[in-house]
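Reopening: Rod binding protein still failing for me.
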Amino acid sequence: MSATLALPAAKLALNVASSLASGIAGGLASALDPAKAKTKKQADDFETMFLEQITDRLTASSETEGPLGENGTGGDIWRSQLSQQYAKQIQKAGGVGLSNQIMRDLLSMQEQATAQATAVTSAAGAQNVGR
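Support: Ran it again with your exact input. Result attached.
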């Protein structure tokens, strides 16, 4: 690994370690009810996938030796696994704020769907009572 990549990787590792030590990563999910915890996990997984795509593009090279060295099948597999791990660690360290927005949007859509279902059920019940 080159020196230009070693310093950001070390900083990232230190940030992840400090956030895990303080218990921030697991505290939010455990404080939520099960439905919200599931929504939070889905939002976090989506952000991780998004970050993986970004880090994969950043480390990609075309027909030349890239920033991570060897090209070829082995290099591609190693690079994709490294991108995946970078994305997971970035997300655990707080991510880019995408998962929080996704979670709010998902919860809002679930609340709207529940309200619509309740309205339809109430309307159907009112029609049955009048017969």
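The CA atoms of residues 62 and 71 lie 9 Å apart. If you still see a failure, please send the error message rather than a screenshot.
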